[in-house]
Specification:
Elements: H1 6-12, H2 23-41, H3 64-86, H4 88-91, E1 95-99, H5 105-114, E2 117-122, H6 125-137, E3 144-148, E4 160-166, H7 174-184, E5 185-198, H8 204-211, H9 218-227, E6 231-237, H10 243-258, H11 264-286, E7 289-297
Parallel strand pairs: 1-2, 1-4, 2-3, 4-5
Antiparallel strand pairs: 5-7, 6-7
Helix pairs in contact: 3-10, 7-9, 10-11
Amino acid sequence: MRVLDEECRADLGKKTVTPYTNVQDVTAYFEGKTKAILDRYGPGPRVHYHNGLLDDPPPPDAPAQFLRRLLVDAQERLLRYAAESWGASFALRGDVLDVGCGLGGGSIFWAQEFGARVTAVTCVPSHIEWVSRFAAQAGVGSKIEAVLCDAAKMPGENRFDAVVAVDSSGYLPRGDWFRRLACLLRPGGRIFIVDCFLARPENREPFDCHWRTNIGTIDEYVAAAHEAGLRPASIENISHRTQHFWTTTLALSEAEVQDGTLDQADRVRREASLRAHALVRKGLGDGGLLYALMSFSKAG
């Protein structure tokens, strides 16, 4: 029997259950997560909230601060691996749209490492200030513009050489989003996505409930891109290199529960988080979920 958190059960009891792609829901979710993200993955200026590459499990009984460092390093390792796979030294040096930029860690990475001029789009009002603050601290304030907008409705045409979406595409309606990207990209432009994808249908409901998302299959993305006139360029499954990121988040959550600093409400939320993280670790291990790099291109 699947175990869902209280909020998920409440949603499932409604007459109509829809995927968590409503912008207001996503905004509220991430507004509520900001402090926890900073506490776990901060202090910055490159603060990420996405998966990471970890090839080995953490040592037993490792302290919380050590586990946090492992996770941050793993997130940076993911971006470096993606950059190499995508040929970022060429493809991500121009005008780049960072979709679902969070607190700006990826935007700062592309600007610092490759000299990109980044438009960092988020639907979370408080994150605009964080992105601008962290970009200034990193010395790339002039290269990053934070924009408050629904990424599926980003205005303009022929504005960007590349689009990057790291663990954010699951919050977007793929058909509408790819059609908008086809307009935003310049001829020859590229779309780079790294995300978790559905491989077995039984994983959809608990995954979407916890992360307020609408997880899709790789085939769905390819079909949506094709309909928008975009061409698939590459797909690389890296699930095996991300499973122990979730082993480590589980170890950290358990350490934080045991340290006695959480109140009852925090403990309930943390227990729901443990179940969700265990689901992802299992899914990445048994093929129920896939974590992959994808890229698409617009005809020149």
